Amino acid sequence: MPEAYIIDAIRTPTGRKKGSLAEWHSADLGAIPITAIVDRTGIDPAAVDDVIWGCVDAVGPQAGNIGRSCWLAAGYPESVPGVTIDRQCGSSQQAIHFAAQAVMSGTQDLIIAGGVQNMNAIPISAAMYAGQAYGHDTPFSLSPAWKARYGDEEVNQIYAAEKIATTWDISRQDMERFAAESNARAERAIDEGRFDSQIIPVGAFAQDETVRRGTTVEGLAGLKTVREGGIITAGISSQIADGAAAVLIASAQAVKDHGLKPRARIHHLTVRGDSPIFMLTAPIPATRHALMKTGLKLSDIDLVEINEAFASVVLAWAKELDADLSKVNVNGGAIALGHPLGATGARLMTTLLYELERTGGRYGMQTMCEGGGLANVTIIERL
To answer: Which PROSITE patterns match (predicted)?
Structure first.
């Protein structure tokens, strides 16, 4: 089977709620890492076979196939197609999977995969609000078949995060310690310049602005819970954020034809499902499946990036897989760095690639929970 290679990866800094990227149109924001990856690799834009782009709640300025719009906003040839996909929070990780699968099938050679999200412009609930204009409440509540299968149990990410914490015996204090460490790791990464080479500035904005410096367990303990009687707070949850990221995937033939230097090889691709009520637990079976299929043990993986949708998600995954958290999200995660939904998958892959190179690790694994009870796993091998 043909190999798929990562040639380059780049991202914007993450902008916080009402922050530096809030006024950017998503097409223009997504065009920034696309332009940077073309410029840095020196490829002929006309040689790109496709632009596969992730975006969640593609309404308003993100509607109308935003992947195609980002490419055109970058000023590149109209002959190159683009497509937008929505696998919820894993959208741009799935974009990378589709790009790699196209290369591995031998049908395409050079693909830009990535994603964009402006959560200030389009809040996470925007698609549901749009549905209400047509008399619908949530994606599930009016489906008789859904009710027959799952009853009236709530389908809500906060509810799911708390259900996970209860099921895996994870206390609020456990989650607050994890969240404080996420912020401390992100602070250190920024101060040591670990992100500098992976970030393309947006105008004068060149550094993630979501990190809550000086976060302490004591400070987190004083926050109000999101739900009355619950244990999830904003401090142990991913942050609303804006951003974009892009990854160039190439075949061996494209590497030769365009004089490219691969930085990593796609070693394995997995996507699995789990309970849509627990919603956020699928990284557990997906990781197990990936390790079974590859014959690897988790101890063989040098670095892991798992999206910190909520602290309970990562801690439950770590408990189930007996993971060494010193190798997980070593530069902080979405609790500190934000979660621009459609861009996060490509952002995590970018961070993983650069950290493998910085530390000299061989294998890196990325996974993330996704709405509907889904999870992707990508394993890459540094070259």
So the answer is: THIOLASE_2
Q: What are the CA-CA distances from residue 62 to residues 75, 340, 343 (Å)?
A: 18, 13, 13
Would you say the pTM of this structure is higher than 0.90?
A: yes
Taking the chain (383 residues) in consecutive chunks of 10 residues, what is each chunk's mean pLDDT?
Answer: 96 97 98 98 98 92 96 98 97 98 98 97 68 58 84 89 98 98 98 98 97 97 94 97 98 98 98 96 98 98 98 98 98 98 98 98 98 97 98
Alpha-carbon torsion, ordered 147, 151, 153, 156, to 10 deg: -20
Q: Residue for token digits 């694994």?
A: 365
Question: How far does CA 228 lie from the centroid of its chain?
Answer: 29
The catalytic residue among 70, 89, 97, 268 is 89
Distance in angstroms (rounded) separating the CA atoms of residues 210 and 347 = 14
Closest CA to 365 of 1, 93, 142, 146: 93
Q: Which residues pair with 89 in a beta bridge?
A: 87
Signed CA dihedral, 194, 195, 200, 203: sign only: negative
